Task: structure prediction
Amino acid sequence: MGRRRPEGGKVSATALLLDEVEEGLSRRQLKLDPAHLELGEGEFHLVGPLQVGLRLNRSGQNFQLEARLQGRLEGECCRCLEPVGQELEAVLQVLLQRQPLGEDEREAAEEDEDVELLAPGDKQADLKERLREAVLLELPLRMYCRQDCKGLCAECGHNLNTGACGCATAQGDPRWSALRDVKLS
Result:
């Protein structure tokens, strides 16, 4: 992924040059700029390059690929808005097949989302969408500075993790005040 073609044209940073993969098992370690995955703007962003560990097993024109992506997410706590970071790990497994298939084989392979069919003459496979999807599926819905974060005061906006703010506690809806006087024995 991310090398130059012998002809001199630049290859995408997320492309796997199939003819350079040796027969049998091989491993590669790469660094990938998150900008190559076009994750878009969100509540969190990846800091620094993603560490990508590739495990490739080539058997003829079949390429079994396992990619482990690791990076650091930064954003803000959804309760108190303090900066927070956490590790992100995503795994991608896919079988790339670069060979002619019969109609039944093709139908079965097309139904399996972990199999990608390539034309027999293809020299590369771009993994951008698959890598992007693997990362997006691992993004948290929310990030917390800690599990017991108290958040912000609804009245003054003070961070309650640093101490009480001095605002009066909520008295509740006055229409329910008669129920406060009911004594249950």
In short: The CA atoms of residues 155 and 167 lie 7 Å apart. The chain has three helices and seven strands. Helices lie at 103-111, 128-138, 177-180.
